[in-house]
Amino acid sequence: MSPRTLLYLYGWRLRAHPFQELLAGAGIAIGVALLFAVQVANHSITGSVEQLLHAITGNAQLELAARDDQGLNARLLDAVRLVPGVVTAAPTLEHHGVIAGPGGSEAIELIGVDPSLAALDGPATREFGSGRLSIPDRSVIIPDRLAHVAGVEPGDFVTIDMAGRAHRVRVAALLHASDIGPLTGSSVVIAPLGFAQRLLGMPGRLSRVLIHARTDRLARVRATVTAMAAGRLDVGPADSTVSRLESASAPNDQSTALFSGISAMIGVLFAFNAMLLTLPDRRAFVAELRIQGFTTWQVVGLLVFEALLLGTIASLGGLLFGDLLSGSVFHAVPTYLAFTFPIGTQRVVAFHTVALAFASGLVASLIAASRALMDVTSRRATDDVFQERGETGERIDASLRRKMLIGSLAIVLATTVTVWLDAGMTIVGVMALGVAVLLAIPAAFARAMPLVDRLARRLRRNLLLVAVMGARSAMTRSVAVAAIAALAVFGSVAIDGARGDLVRGLGAGFAEQARAADVWVTTAGRSLTTDAFPLDASALRRIREAPEVRSVRLYQGGMLDISNPARRIWVLGRPSSDPDIVPPSQIVSGDPALVERRLRAGGWAAASRTIADTQASRVGGRFELATPSGTAHLRLAAIVTNLGWGSGAVILNTRDYRRYWQTDAVVAIGVDLAPGVSATAGRRAVRRALGPGRGFDVETAQQFEAEFNRLLQDGLTRLSQISLLLMIAATLALSAALSAALWQRRPRLAAQKVQGFKDSQLRRTLVLEAVLVLLLGCVAGAIGGAGGHLLGNRWLELTTGFPAPYSLQVTATLTTLLTILGGVVVTVATVGTFAVRVPPGASFGR
Amino acid sequence: MSTLELDRIVKHYDSGGERVRAADGVSLLIEPGEVVALYGPSGSGKTTLLLLAAGLLTPDAGDVRFAGRSIAGLSRDEGARYRRSLGFVFQTFHLMPSVPAIDNATLKLLADGLSPARARKQATTWLARLGLADRAHHPPEKLSMGERQRVAIARALANDPQLILADEPTGSLDSVRSRQTLALLARLCRERGVGMLLVTHDPDAAQFADRVFDLRDGRLAARTDHPGLTASALAAHDEVAPA
After folding, report:
1. Beta bridge partner(s), residue B26
2. CB contacts < 8 Å between A and B, how many?
3. pLDDT in the model for residue A535
4. What is the per-residue pLDDT for B185?
5. Contacts of B108 in chain A (CB under 8 A)
6. Residue of B nearest to A8 (CA)
7. B37: Cβ–Cβ under 8 A, 6 or more apart, which residues?
8. How far apart are CA A651 and CA A638, in angstroms?
């Protein structure tokens, strides 16, 4: 058939069933939108950093980098420049901080540069070489977006909080899109190198040296520079930071991908079920076409064309909706990542992201059309469709139901075995479980309805009996509605369950850390205790001598860049006087009491599984860590969770930390208050002791824990959004599906009125039927969802290292179930009120 | 035009563990332009015979031949082409809801590969001949039962079929509409030299057939040769007959 004829016939479908077609399209669009938006949001995090790094590093191939915030000696720069084959060696000094102005504040990356950087020809810095842009001393330049956030203009002053100090700095100029392109979305503050060193109190120190070498000498340059690093610095590709960010954000990306994958699958299945609502008509139409002499290929061509057209339009709609979602709801960058990486606000949309989402929509549409296609393979043209019991095309015969149930059980079994053997298969496994739930619905329906029938007869509930008869006579439609409910509950239970466990797991660890002291002092805006600040002896003495203070403990640590594989891990140096050096809830492997004894003794560390596994270390075994002073030879006291940091964490005592890091800088001061002193009074006393003009946050344990939890919720925002969107989408999809089904049934309602039923009775029957069908779906979904939740948790713990102890979340499940059920029943009652007003004459086709 | 021949057809079903003989050695010949009625109560096997004639069911024994060729061994595509040469009229019309009458009438023409524009042109002619010119753009829901059946007849005849298979075509119509519809079908068959197998349980339908077979338990129990109504008598019943 020609495309014109195919379009012509598709026009028939649209005229006959516009609402159902819209519903199917909406289901596909929702799935595509969620998948696309989440992928864009995830990719933008690494993509924006990649853009920034490439804009700065230009043609540099190598970097010689310090492993932590303390930096490297600037004299190494001169030595590198003398290495034969080095064309350019440009220094940078980088540090995280917070910029604040009258308009607001934002986490930033301060980058100190010198004019040699222009020689690397990076888009962000080449203008410095041309002389078009220059930075006066004691000034900075910032992207115009950041100036807008801070509410400043060139010539104005901003405050930059870094390393426990607040600095007032003049903004010399703004970087516009014409200067740096999409990097205007980056949160960078560029300063002359010397000024940056003074701001940070790090004269003669650098973060990294970017090296552009002659290609033919690259290997030799690398070897020479590696020798210079002497095992205390890292030598690697100039864009190693991207790999480190990927490692840090991977668990978050993976967990988001898992949930967006579940959502996408549910979107696909929504579409499939929306198509199921139209299936009786489609099957009847296919049979009609075949009776009228359409060949198999003509029918297949028509069905595939319809599916592809619907898929294309719905996918395009989904991409547009997804674009809106990624630019609004999903746009926020997780704060904890912005603390340690220069993440920009620009959205980076890769071709593969668009292609994947679009292809998913097409596949969904084809899957949804598959049942009608199956009729084409039947030898008989009528394919039983005109000879079935009940309404035309509505029957799902016993043999098909049995096959579907066997398929469902086989999938559950195969999934359990596969995921048990390979946790990496979890995403596929959860999706397979969703399909298994779907396949089990017809059999569950066929089993449950006779039971309800019997119950209704025994209790003499005639309206319930009529409701059961209604549900059974339109089996495909009832199963479709039950399946949508099942999938919605499945997705919500699986996502919310895993998310809830993650919140509890991380929250427990944070609470244990926060409650270790009554009052905490940290660098401003850095409650994750990742930024070190130099210890001010006089301020410390004043805190200790305050009458409200009983004792003071110093906490050390920060981010540590390691290679092979490139990661930025979180190191916590905790004092032996801490009640719990390792938060007990975060120990995955190891006896808590023994772990404490070993860490207090020194020479032992606790590490996340992802870090320990790279060295094949076991508890009690040897464990090596590349520190700024060289490789530390330790022993592994315990395997711990990743403490919420994707790349993993290492905990050791502060004596060992000072030894290997050779620094007294601290990341937090924990203050225990004298008996009878309130937390608020103690906090005021500590703030007084620190003196004015300091870039510190002083918080009570309660505030500190609340701040942790805020960051935690912020990091999991996307999961909450996905879960909420899923529930809204499910309620809407079910409401729409049931409304459409109700409207189609007006002739039968009219016939029932002829038989003497009153409007109110019919309305109650409709609500009862909806509740029956939905309950069946919800229960099946909840059972499947509990399995999905279990798999999701296992995956989170094993693959990502996040703490997520499993718990059956009955309240959350019931809330989800009742929310969906309540929303849909209200819709059915409303639409039913209008549907039952059909005149009895309609039953005679008038 | 071609002849349909049912030769000693046997077709049995299992229904609830019981063996049902839907066709038990049925032989029947329908010549071009001849209207043959199969009369019988529900469950007598009328529709089964019609489906067998259409190649939609395969007989357990015996053979169905059309234009001298057995339809038993037809491939799927050959079967589809065979059905394209037939015109189907059903009791429940089988029209697409919400789709205008003119579009409904194009279905077989589209299967023949005509463009939608040409198919609509051809369908318009047929609708006009059946007195539906002013109702062509109405969907089935806006048409009376008689009008719906005429749309179905227009669809059946639009591609000049060689045989019409009508399954209780008047089952949904009142007696006046029934007679009008049957008269219309019979007249068109004779005019065009098209054979028709009419399945009915309406005793009045017999007067429009050339031959009437009484079908009981899958057997042709009695045969009534009927001269059929004259052209003028048919016209008297047929409200859309040419003047």
Report:
1. B9
2. 75
3. 74
4. 84
5. 292-293
6. B116
7. B198, B199, B200, B205, B206, B208, B209, B211, B212, B213
8. 9
Token readout for A178 is 């014409």
**Interchain CB contact of B145 with A (< 8 Å):** yes
Residue A668 tokens, joined: 């937090």
Check CB contact under 8 Å for A293 and B97: no
Give yes or no for residue A728 having a pLDDT over 80: no
Tokens of A23: 């519903």
| A329-354 mean pLDDT | 67
pLDDT of residue B12: 87
Cβ burial of A833 (10 Å; 0-12, 13-18, 19+) is: middle
- C-alpha A14/C-alpha A763 separation (Å) is 29
Whole-angstrom Cα distance, residue B170 to residue B206?
Answer: 12
* A392 contacts: CB under 8 Å, gap ≥ 6: A280, A283, A284, A385, A386
Q: How far apart are CA A24 and CA A14, in angstroms?
A: 12
Q: If we measure between CA atoms, which residue out of A632, A410, A666 comes closest to residue A523?
A: A666
For residue A547, give both structure tokens. 């009458």
**B54 contacts B165 by C-beta, under 8 angstroms:** yes
CA dihedral sign, ordered A492, A497, A498, A499: positive
Contacts 24+ apart (CB under 8 A), A324-333: A325/A33, A325/A34, A325/A36, A325/A37, A326/A36, A326/A37, A326/A38, A326/A40, A326/A41, A326/A44, A329/A37, A329/A721, A329/A725, A330/A37, A330/A38, A330/A40, A330/A41, A330/A718, A330/A721, A331/A41, A332/A714, A332/A717, A333/A45
Comparing CB atoms, the residue among B55, B76, B107 nearest residue A292 is: B107
**What angle (nearest 5°) sits at the alpha carbon of residue A279, between those of residues A276 and A280?**
130
Q: Could you read off the pLDDT of B12-21 as tens digits, one per residue?
A: 877 767 777 8
Q: Where are the beta strands (DSSP E) in A310-443?
A: none
Q: What value of ipTM does the predicted structure carry?
A: 0.79
Q: If you write DSSP's letter for every residue of A118-142 in order, what string do you get?
A: GGGT-TTTHHHHHTSS---TTEEEE
Q: How much is the pLDDT for A637?
A: 94
Q: Which residue has the tokens 């059972």?
A: A783
Which of B99, B103, B115 lies nearest to residue A2, judging by beta carbons? B115
Q: A382–B51: do the CB atoms touch at under 8 Å?
A: yes
Cα separation, A503 vs A101, in Å, equals 33
Digit-coded pLDDT (tens) for A226-283: 999 888 888 888 877 777 767 666 666 666 666 666 666 666 666 666 666 677 777 7
Q: What tokens were used for B208?
A: 């429009």
If DSSP codes are grouped into helix, strand and coil, which group holds residue A93?
strand
On whether the CB atoms of residues A560 and A571 are closer than 8 A, the answer is yes
Tokens 């060295």 correspond to what residue?
A615
